[in-house]
Design goal:
heterodimer; A: about 525 residues; mainly alpha; Cytochrome C Oxidase, Chain A; about 65% helix; about 0% strand; disordered N terminus; B: about 60 residues
């Protein structure tokens, strides 16, 4: 797609000073999409370090069989908080950060449609994060019933379970506000000439993700509200003694939970679809089919939820239905992987850090997709449900999938955000350490799961010792490697080689027509897209 | 667009191919010119319902 953009504001300084407050008040009161994007990304980065350190507590305890490091109840708190924070406090806010920074820049809009709601949507997040972590200091410790919040554990727990429920409510409100903002911005504020089918794929994937969020987050809010009333107001939605059914929670939760998986991964598809054409110096192969495939995945995501709960009991007909519908997802996902590979085919490829992470994404996400197909088969899933095979599967999807795409996106757009090129040597070191240690951590978990090691236990039988030791070593290398990423970002913010407007030779799109760093206000006069 | 508006049948065909994930370029360009977003969304929802019914039919054949 060739854009011919006009922009008459190259000369505008980074802050054109029309009375905004300075210091902390700038960040508390900002309605600027770039400021809010940065706030989301820093929040996600901070929570990544918090939830990552929880993962290292888990891996330290599992380094050897037996109980050495933490009390089993604290171990359960760590698994619960690690999952909740990584999903709701890291991946989702990181994508919201990308959306805020990039969507107006990519569609030629001056800002998001509802800038004040944008501010509110962000500032709810630290409150929710605080509530989640506050549980650690409450009597009985943090919630320890798993990130899926299943009753009866989540009905029986102490005050930190209430804090978790409130945190989920607040996070949901924030997500819905963000989604309304993104949909309105994309549908109403595109530059003249930018039809829907000319939008960059990242914008498309976020548009569809925003609809998924609006459709499913209220369902989650309903589920946790029912937990709350079961806990305090004598309802019995999930209590069999009062005529309720705990399995109903699982159905409601996963009706949210499966589309949530795509909420986490669709923007990743978008980022990778921006990066691969840039460094292959070819337009994206099959743009329209990528849009179609994204929409198909979104629709299918609503009719597969019970594959998460094959073992709780359901009629054989339901098991078959959910098995078939789940396997169908391989078709549009396969189309995407094919298109990425076809884009690279005979391209003039170079391998800067964003491209390395994007290629790792394509390879490793595909492994996660294949193990997902294994889990989709009901008779197989009944064997491996709640084992480390499932842990391996979803970490390949979410670490080498969503997280690698986030890292790739940061490297890709960091020169546009900061005005400086990042340190390529450190970036490559970060890549190789991450990609090797990620596989050392999670690949052995397939073997552990197939051998029958259950997830969410602080201890395990002796025969699982070697693979657990390998996984723990990999996890510590992976965790500490991320400090290199932090160093690269800080280094690029503080200085470095000046980035050009286009930054990357093969980069196409409106965001590359504005100066680097992108001025505080961009596209006050709409560009024209031909 | 000077072209006339696409029929429901054309919307259904576009959605069918989108479920599969590929579309011939000339047909895609016709779709993009003639179909309105509302047509595609309605056709998509109808097709999703049909897909569920087809899957239920297959389940009924296998397990019925």
């Amino acid at each position: 797609m060739a854009h011919d953009a006009t922009h008459a504001h190259d000369a505008i300084p980074a802050h054109d000073g029309h009375g905004q407050p300075g210091g902390i008040m700038r960040w508390l009161t900002t309605t600027n999409h770039k400021d809010i994007g940065s706030l989301y990304l820093w929040f996600a980065g901070t929570m990544f370090l918090v939830a990552g350190s929880f993962a290292l507590v888990i891996r330290a305890e599992l380094f050897q069989p037996g109980l050495q490091v933490v009390h089993p109840d604290f171990f359960n708190q760590m698994t619960t908080l690690h999952g909740l924070i990584m999903v709701f406090g890291v991946i989702m806010p990181a994508w919201a950060g990308f959306a805020n920074w990039q969507i107006p820049l990519m569609i030629g809009a001056p800002d998001m449609a509802f800038p004040r709601m944008n501010n509110w949507g962000f500032w709810l997040l630290p409150v929710a994060g605080f509530l989640l972590l506050l549980g650690l200091f409450m009597p009985g410790g943090a919630a320890a019933g798993g990130w899926t919040m299943y009753p009866p554990l989540f009905v029986q727990g102490g005050i930190s379970y209430d804090l978790t429920i409130f945190a989920i409510h607040i996070l949901g409100a924030s997500s819905i506000m963000g989604s309304i903002n993104i949909i309105t911005t994309v549908l109403n504020m595109r530059a003249p000439g930018m039809t829907l089918m000319k939008m960059p794929l990242f914008v498309w994937t976020w548009l569809i993700t925003a609809y998924l969020l609006i459709a499913t987050v209220p369902v989650l809010a309903g589920a946790v509200t029912m937990l709350l009333t079961d806990r305090h107001f004598d309802t019995h939605f999930f209590n069999p003694a009062g005529g309720g059914d705990p399995v109903m929670f699982q159905h409601i939760f996963w009706f949210f939970g499966h589309p949530e998986v795509y909420i986490l991964i669709l923007p990743a598809f978008g980022v990778v679809s921006q990066i691969i054409p840039t460094f292959a110096r070819k337009p994206l192969f099959g743009y329209a089919s990528m849009v179609y495939a994204t929409a198909s995945i979104a629709i299918l995501s609503f009719i597969v939820w019970a594959h998460h709960m094959f073992t709780v009991g359901m009629p054989a007909a339901a098991q078959l239905f959910f098995m078939y519908s789940t396997m169908l997802i391989a078709v549009p996902t396969g189309v995407k992987v094919f298109n990425w590979v076809a884009t690279m085919w005979k391209g003039s490829m170079t391998f800067e850090t964003p491209m390395l992470f994007a290629i790792a994404f394509v390879c490793l996400f595909t492994i996660g997709g294949f193990s997902g197909l294994v889990c989709a088969m009901t008779p197989v899933d009944i064997q491996i449900h709640d084992t480390y095979y499932v842990v391996a599967h979803f970490h390949y999807v979410l670490v080498s999938g969503a997280l690698f795409a986030i890292i790739a996106g940061v490297y890709y757009w960091l020169p546009k955000w900061t005005g400086h090129m990042y340190d390529e040597k450190l970036g490559k070191l970060h890549f190789w350490l991450s990609v090797i240690s990620m596989n050392v951590t999670f690949f052995p978990m397939h073997f552990l799961g197939l051998a029958g090691m259950p997830r969410r236990y602080a201890d395990y039988a002796l025969q699982f010792a070697e693979f657990n030791m390998i996984a723990s070593i990999g996890a510590f290398i992976f965790g500490f490697s991320q400090l290199i990423f932090l160093a690269v970002i800080i280094k690029a913010i503080r200085g470095g080689r000046k980035a050009s407007d286009q930054v990357w030779e093969g980069a196409q799109g409106l965001e590359w027509t504005v100066p680097s760093p992108a001025p505080y206000h961009t596209f006050e006069t709409a560009p024209v897209v031909k | 667009m000077a072209e006339r508006r696409g029929s429901h049948w054309q919307a259904a065909r576009a959605v069918f191919w989108s479920f599969f994930g590929v579309r011939k370029k000339s047909h895609y360009e016709q779709d993009a010119g003639r179909l309105s977003p509302a047509q595609v969304i309605v056709a998509g929802l109808v097709a999703a319902a049909l897909l569920v019914l087809i899957l239920l039919g297959i389940v009924w054949l296998v397990a019925g």
